[in-house]
Design brief:
Helices cover 40% and strands 14% of the residues. The chain contains six helices and four strands. Helix 1 (19-30) links the parallel strand 1 (13-17) and strand 2. The longest helix is centred in the last third of the chain and has 16 residues, at 133-148. The model has no long low-confidence stretch (mean pLDDT 93).
């Protein structure tokens, strides 16, 4: 990427929701030299805690494939965070249980990593319920990116 003159490698950002949120965490944690800023929403931080109907369809049983479940979990690599991370999760998430957020937050604290965390009370996986939520979320994104990945030429 650094060979492209139209890309500023000091302002590489990534964001995602749900599976994309998990991918965002993995990119920030496993490629911190490439991605300096990321926004992750409703992410599965620990694959061992996610819906077995979905997870085991692709990963097999944890009893038979534990190493891959652990290696693919962002929480395993949280110690590598170097950049700016905004982590968002609804406390009423009915798909990726809020306990995933608590586990990751506790791991990041244990590792001494600084990050921004925004829980949305009683919001489900889509983080869309409640008056003003959508506008608040979009404003939060925009402010975070303006602060940590400012626009403009280099």
């Amino acid at each position: 990427i650094s060979q492209w003159d139209f890309v500023d490698p000091t302002r590489m950002a990534v964001w995602g929701h749900s599976g994309g949120g998990s991918a965002t965490l993995n990119l920030l944690f496993q490629y911190p030299e490439l991605f300096q800023t990321g926004i992750s929403l409703a992410a599965v931080a620990n694959q061992l805690t996610y819906d077995n109907v979905y997870q085991e369809r692709y990963m097999g049983l944890p009893q038979e494939n534990l190493e891959d479940f652990v290696a693919g979990s962002p929480i395993t690599h949280a110690k590598n965070l170097k950049g700016n991370m905004l982590y968002i999760h609804g406390t009423g998430d009915d798909n990726v249980h809020y306990a995933n957020a608590e586990m990751l937050v506790n791991e990041l604290i244990k590792q001494g990593k600084q990050f921004t965390f925004m829980p949305y009370p009683n919001r489900s996986h889509g983080i869309s319920e409640g008056e003003g939520t959508n506008q608040h979320l979009r404003t939060l994104f925009t402010q975070f990116l303006h602060t940590h990945c400012p626009p403009g030429g280099r």
